[in-house]
Every structure is written in C-alpha cells, then in structure tokens.
Amino acid sequence: MLTLSRRSLVGSMAALAAAAVARPALAGDKKKDAAPAPATPAPAPAAPAAGPFVLPPLPYADTELAPVISQNTLGFHYGKHHQGYVNKLNDAVAGKDWASKPLADVMKGTYGTDATAIYNNSAQVWNHTFYWSSMRKAGEQAPNGKLNDAIKTSFGDLAGLKKELSQAATSQFGSGWAWLVSDGGKLKVVKTPNADNPIVLGQGTPLLCIDVWEHAYYLDYQNRRIDYVTAWLDKLANWEFAAQNLG
Ligand code: MN3
How confident is the model at residue 21 (pLDDT cuts 50, 70, 90)? Predict the structure, then answer.
C-alpha cells in the first residue's frame, strides 16, 4: 500500500508540475539569477540538458537480489535515490570546472571544502555505484584464493569478518556505510557517516560496502537493520568483486 500511495503522490505532483509550466523543466530553472522568461515561449528542446554525470546501469536484473532486497526497494533505491544524487550533482556542477572532471576527482577535490552539495552528491553517486557491484545475484558464495587468505590473516575466518562487518553496519549511528578495505596489505572494517567513504578519509582501498541508510532496507525490513545486514552478508556479498579490488 505504501508503494502505491507514494507512486500515486509522485504522479500527482508530476502532473501538477507539468500543468504549472508551459515547457519542460530545464537544468537552469532553479537558479535565482536566471534570465526572465521571454514574452513568447521558446520552442521546447528535444530533451532537458542532462549534465556530465549519468546513472550507470545495474550489474543485474532488478529482481535478482530478492528475497534479500526486493524489486520494490531496488526500484526506489536505484531509480529514485541514486538517480536523485546524479541529478543534484549535475545541477551543482553546472558552469563549474568540476563538470569536466572524473567523478572520483570531484569527490576527493571537494571533500572538506564549502562545496558541500557537490561533495555530498558526488560521493553518494560513487558510493552507490560501488554498492551495486558489491552485491551479486542472491545465493551462496564464498571467497577463495588470495582474498580468502587475507581474510584468514586479518579476521581468523569468514565468520570473523562477517561479525566485524555486521557490528560496523549496525553500530553506525544514523545514515552511513560499512566497508571492507585493504590498508597496506591488511584487511580491515571501517564505517563512515552520511556520504563519506574510505577514499576521502584515507582509510584504504575499498573492497566491498554495505549501504545502511534507511532507504536501503526500510521497505523490506523496517527498523530491523541487523536482519538486512545478516542476509546481505550471507546471500548478496560479491566476493569476486572484493577479490578484483584487492588485486
Ligand atoms: Mn543508498
């Protein structure tokens, strides 16, 4: 019911917005210093300016993470939240040098500056892209080879790693992320608040991440973050991706 009402609301708002303007919204419409509208409406462009950053495709079908993450959750998370960060980033970099820079350079270059909108949205675009690849089609999978050796050295065994990741993910207060990173050849678990990630914080090379913002799990698990994290670690963790990142 929640899904239906939210979608209906979005649809109604879109209809209202469409009725209120004579042409499609443009990227520059929100700027207060935009030129006044001409008396005679200009022809509508073929499509709104998209900006330099785009939503990357998911590495699986949106049904393949079920039953751990439903198609409904993934639809909102990817199609609304991740797309929203991309759109806000494009708005924030419009007319700035950042518009021509790689995404990772943008988030590293704006961390700790007063360009908070560019930083927050660029880091969230990066984090979510990494998060999608940190998961695979739901099922049993275990790390092997060099990654498995490193897990044994750093955590004793896979259960030890899962316990640390679970603790980090469930103890992160409010919104944020839990990460498996490689730092100087040793694996460790870290957690970061809001949009922050181990790259900007200098905590090592990310291997996997778990999104623990409520939007990642609330439709499926409500307040039970521990159930989401446990199922994620047992059924979705993409150890092949982690091994690739370990190199
Ligand atoms: Mn998210």
Answer: very low
In the three-class reduction of DSSP (H, G, I as helix; E, B as strand; rest coil), residue 151 is classed as: helix
Strands 176-183 and 186-193: antiparallel
Measure 39 CA to ligand 1 centroid, in angstroms: 42
Q: How far is the CA of 225 from the centre of ligand 1 (A)?
A: 13
Instruction: Calculate how far, in angstroms, residue 121's C-alpha sits from the geometric centre of ligand 1.
Output: 11
Whether the predicted model's global pTM rises above the 0.90 cut: no
Identify the bridge partners of residue 135 per DSSP, sorted by sequence position. Answer: 237
Q: Distance, CA 168 to ligand 1 centroid (Å)?
A: 16
Q: Give the tens place of pLDDT for each residue, 38-66.
A: 454 444 433 334 789 999 999 999 999 99
Q: How far apart are CA 141 and CA 177, in angstroms?
A: 22
Distance 40 CA to ligand 1 centre (A): 42
Fold entry, domain 145-246:
minor pseudopilin epsh fold (3.55.40)
Closest listed residue to residue 62, CA positions, set 135, 8, 122, 112:
135
CA of 155 to the centre of ligand 1 (A): 27
- How far apart are the C-alpha atoms of 50 and 100, rounded to whole Å? 14
